[in-house]
Design goal:
Blueprint lengths: L10 H24 L6 E8 L2 E8 L11 E7 L11 H7 L4 E6 L25 H10 L7 E11 L1 H12 L5 E5 L17 H4 L8 E6 L7 H12 L2 E5 L12 H16 L12 H25 L1 H4 L17 H26 L3 H24 L6 H10 L5 H22 L10 H6 L4 H15 L9 H26 L3 H24 L2 H18 L1 H10 L1
Parallel strand pairs: 3-4, 3-5, 5-6, 6-7, 7-8
Antiparallel strand pairs: 1-2, 2-4
Helix pairs in contact: 1-8, 8-13, 8-17, 10-11, 11-15, 13-17, 13-18, 15-17, 15-18, 16-17, 17-18
């Protein structure tokens, strides 16, 4: 006798399946398009000036019909960036039969060391040999038999432009060098750089086949002080870019890629047309990446909602701060609005007058004010006696059955999905390069502690004008989303580093996730644990970047 089997599909299950299906579809479409450019990439580890450096070697998706071996181009990113953020070169050149190696030079991305490290054996500045050391490592790989040793080029952006100018001038294995808004006169850096300053290395023969691509209105790396200086020293060609998005320095333009491709193919193949028509796909790929990340975030939020019933065993109680709606709902709404506006205004004012120091000043004001308020309420209003035992009981009350596991689960799921995507593409792979950097990330702890105090202890209790608890959580999450978009904008305005922006995006995601965690557990410790996991990993990855910025100041 066959029994009827009924499958119960709940709303919770549907909310998990939909983003999972969306994630699977977007990931499949993206991967299918990615392999049209590079079907495979290899992580390369090598040593330079006493430090361990890393690069990604992207394999081409096609062979050249008119020659047996393939060209190789090494790409050096700008200051504060890393090898897998701007992957335009990898996407566009690999599909045209080029190998591309994205390099993290000293003190950037996964690579260690300092920007001004000197090789103890040769006395050569580390960044002046990083491209050459990478080529040494690639020459030892089996795949080097597929590379044409006479068709090896360099391209670098901004500070990376300075790096490739140094390496191209010192190593004649590089047959062509392209500088995107590159630093030529590096005297402002100091620190014993003078000997390897491109302004002292460049001449009419070194580097070979030099092309400069520069925006005339570049306010970061001056056209007159750098591009024109290089032209005076070398007699090279300068291509002036006028259609760059965001700013002339970023060189986000089709023209930049087309001119880059044509220069390499003219130098390597003797023709700009023999390798076929240039069709750029990087814009559509970037949009697909964006959709992939959105699908990932929705999947993570759905997963922690779905798994709460399995990981949380205890009966959840409403904390004292969250009370049922009172009769004077207008006063509750007014209090919420005033609290929210005060929080935003405080950040705006401190950022306006104190700059980046606001990331410490504002949190300490908030935390100090909250502690003072709690002490006044406890001692004066409720006449409570504060003792070691009462503090111990308060801490103990935060660790209910399942709370710790559920909180860790949230952070691990997010980081797991993120690293799976970041390694597969690869794209913006961020993690603390060492344990010291992870510990250094706790310098930012007051910032997310203060924001969670505002969201969970101040704003949430005054959302009682909304009767449904789920709708309160959703409403607050939307408010958090808008607030943190401001933080992302400020990070771009002051720094512009993708790693810093990504850290603030992760901060945004952690805060939205915390709305769900707090709704499910009603334990403040749950939002702290999740924040430490996510923010610790992302902000830990930018500690070397921040150290590098301080060295320039």
């Amino acid at each position: 006798m066959v029994k009827n089997i009924r499958i119960k599909i709940t709303t919770r299950s549907i909310l998990l399946l939909i983003p999972l299906i969306l994630l699977a579809i977007t990931a499949s479409i993206f991967y299918a398009n990615r392999v049209q450019s590079y079907p495979f990439y290899e992580r390369v580890q090598f040593n330079s000036a006493g430090s361990t450096l890393y690069a990604n070697l992207y394999y081409p998706s096609k062979d050249l019909e008119f020659q047996d071996q393939n060209p190789l181009v090494i790409y050096a990113h700008g200051s504060g960036w890393q090898k897998d953020v701007d992957i335009r070169i990898a996407l566009e050149l690999t599909k045209r039969g080029f190998f591309v190696a994205g390099l993290d030079y000293h003190q950037h991305g996964e690579s260690g060391g300092g920007l001004l490290d000197v090789d103890p054996d040769t006395g050569v500045l580390g960044i002046a040999q990083d491209c050459s050391k990478l080529l040494d490592a690639i020459e030892l790989l089996d795949v080097y038999s597929r590379i044409n040793s006479s068709q090896i080029g360099l391209v670098g952006h901004s500070l990376g432009g300075m790096v490739v100018l140094m390496n191209g001038a010192l190593d004649d294995r590089f047959a062509a060098t392209i500088s995107w808004a590159g630093v030529v006169n590096a005297s402002f850096i100091g620190g014993g750089l003078d000997v390897y300053n491109p302004a002292n290395l460049l001449n009419t023969t070194d580097p070979q086949n030099l092309l400069l691509i520069h925006g005339y209105d570049d306010r970061t790396v001056s056209y007159e002080d750098h591009a024109l200086l290089a032209q005076d020293l070398t007699g090279c060609t300068i291509i002036n870019i006028t259609d760059s998005l965001i700013s002339d320095h970023y060189l986000l333009s089709d023209t930049v890629l087309i001119e880059t491709i044509q220069w390499y193919e003219l130098v390597f193949f003797g023709s700009e047309s023999i390798n076929g028509q240039i069709n750029l796909d990087y814009v559509s790929m970037l949009f697909m990446m964006l959709f992939l990340l959105i699908a990932m975030c929705l999947t993570v939020l759905s997963a922690i909602i779905y798994c709460s019933k399995y990981l949380l065993k205890e009966k959840r109680e409403v904390p004292p701060e969250v009370v049922e709606p009172k009769s004077n709902s207008k006063m509750i709404v007014l209090t919420f609005v005033l609290s929210l506006v005060s929080y935003i205004v405080l950040w705006v004012l401190t950022i306006t007058y104190f700059g980046l120091s606001a990331i410490y000043l504002t949190p300490f004001i908030i935390i100090g004010a909250y502690i003072l308020y709690k002490l006044v309420v406890a001692l004066k209003v409720r006449n409570l006696e504060i003792s070691k035992e009462s503090i111990k009981n308060e801490i103990k009350s935060q660790f209910g059955r399942g709370t710790l596991v559920y909180s860790i689960f949230g952070g691990v799921v997010f980081m797991g999905f993120y690293y799976l995507i970041a390694f597969t593409i690869p794209w913006t792979l961020l993690y603390p390069p060492d344990f010291a950097s992870f510990i250094g990330s706790f310098l930012i702890f007051p910032m997310y502690l203060s924001s969670e105090i505002i969201y969970r202890k101040v704003l949430l209790p005054h959302t009682n004008f909304i009767k449904s608890k789920k709708k309160r959580t959703l409403f607050l999450s939307i408010m958090i989303l808008f607030i943190h978009m401001y933080f992302v904008f400020i990070s771009f305005w002051y720094d512009g580093s993708p790693a810093v922006m990504a850290a603030f995006f992760a901060y945004l995601m952690a805060s939205v996730m915390n709305s769900i965690l707090y709704h499910k557990t009603k334990k403040f410790i749950s939002v702290i644990i999740n924040s430490v996991i996510i923010n610790g990993m992302f902000f830990g990855s930018i500690v070397p970047v921040l150290i590098g910025l301080l060295e320039f100041l």
